[in-house]
Write a structure and sequence with these properties.
Elements: E1 24-34, H1 36-42, E2 59-66, E3 78-81, E4 84-86, H2 92-95, E5 106-107, E6 119-123, E7 128-129, H3 136-139, H4 145-154, E8 161-165, H5 169-180, E9 184-189, H6 194-202, E10 207-210, E11 219-224, H7 231-238, E12 239-247, E13 268-271, H8 277-286, E14 296-300, H9 304-312, E15 319-323
Parallel strand pairs: 8-9, 8-11, 9-10, 11-12, 12-13, 14-15
Antiparallel strand pairs: 1-2, 1-6, 1-15, 2-3, 3-7, 4-5
Helix pairs in contact: 4-5
């Protein structure tokens, strides 16, 4: 079974049989976590996806086939496939170690078929070795929610008082890392989400409230995980002079105009785009040391549309994961 960006299941006879090309591995998909970016693609908010397209970019699979010239992984080995699926390796960004900004990059579940399927193929160079001690379902959210969250956290440098706007899949992972680093975490949820606020407190946040509320003290940095542009001036108003606000999403609604005084005082507003393989390798080594524990809600592959709808409605605390095998 395989799910397209339109959310429909193809009949078995129509299912493409992926064969690994040179430098590729074929994977029997075990699990694939569901990301808000999947929803943005389905809703047409990200331009020019490959069509037809198989969604999913937090893939856990077992190597079942190896293409010519492929040597990183062995048959039966468990690997992860993240959002970054290919770069040209020669542009100025790649040469500078910023492959996440490659102009010709291709992304899993967007320009390359992803993991809402029983099988997939991937470039072995962009697959990640996964830490032991996690089940397939538990480790899947680390491949995007964890990686993008981790890159965002690094962008806050050594900020002690950290605000997390939108307490979903990414925030529930990064809150654990931040607390392990002895930072103080302040969590912001959509108004009325008292369950989400309790969830944040259970993971070590010292304060949790609505995104319409001001934190009890100034923040040194904030990460915006919610795709809501209106939160940018809100977060800027919450950080102290010299603070940084990091926009962590692939897509965000329009940012409203705001007065210069919110940015003044050497505050920094920046985005995080994609990830590098180095981010992935570093985070996969860090996660078991914390140890990061993911809260998941399991869905069957044929329930992919249902998982997306729960995500759209804000009804998930933690991450949705499709159990494929």
């Amino acid at each position: 079974m395989i799910f397209t960006a339109a959310g429909t299941a193809l009949r078995e006879a129509e299912r493409p049989a992926p064969e690994p090309g040179a430098g590729q591995v074929r994977l029997n998909v075990q699990a694939c976590a569901v990301c808000r970016t999947d929803l943005h693609i389905v809703d047409g908010e990200l331009p020019d996806p490959k069509l037809p397209l198989v969604l999913g970019h937090q893939i856990v699979g077992l190597v079942s086939g190896i293409g010519e010239g492929t040597s990183r992984f062995s048959l039966g080995e468990r690997v992860g496939v993240p959002w970054l699926g290919w770069t040209d390796g020669s542009c100025r960004f790649c040469r500078a170690g910023r492959e996440n900004l490659c102009d010709r990059a291709r992304f899993t579940g967007y320009q390359l078929d992803g993991g809402f399927a029983e099988e997939t193929v991937a470039d072995e160079r962009y697959c990640l070795r996964l830490p032991e001690g996690y089940s397939d379902l538990e480790v899947a959210p680390l491949l995007c929610a964890g990686l993008i969250g981790y890159r965002s956290l690094v962008m806050t440098a050594n900020a002690e008082r950290l605000g997390l706007y939108g307490f979903g899949a990414s925030a529930h992972i990064i809150a654990q890392v931040a607390r392990w680093q002895t930072r103080r975490v302040f969590a912001f949820t959509r108004p009325g989400d008292t369950e989400g606020q309790r969830f944040a407190l259970s993971l070590g946040a010292e304060w949790a409230g609505s995104s319409t509320e001001s934190p009890p003290e100034e923040l040194d940095a904030a990460i915006i995980f919610a795709p809501v542009g209106e939160l940018v001036p809100v977060a800027l108003a919450a950080v102290a002079k010299g603070g940084v606000v990091v926009c962590a999403g692939i897509h965000m609604s329009e940012i409203p105009s705001f007065s210069y005084d919110l940015l003044w005082g050497e505050r920094v507003l920046r985005s995080v785009a994609n990830l590098t393989r180095h981010d992935g390798e570093e985070f996969m080594q860090l996660a078991p040391k914390v140890p990061v524990r993911t809260q998941i809600r399991e869905f069957r592959l044929e329930e992919a549309n249902e998982a997306l709808q729960h995500l759209r409605a804000g009804e998930l605390h933690g991450a949705a994961v499709l159990k494929v095998t």
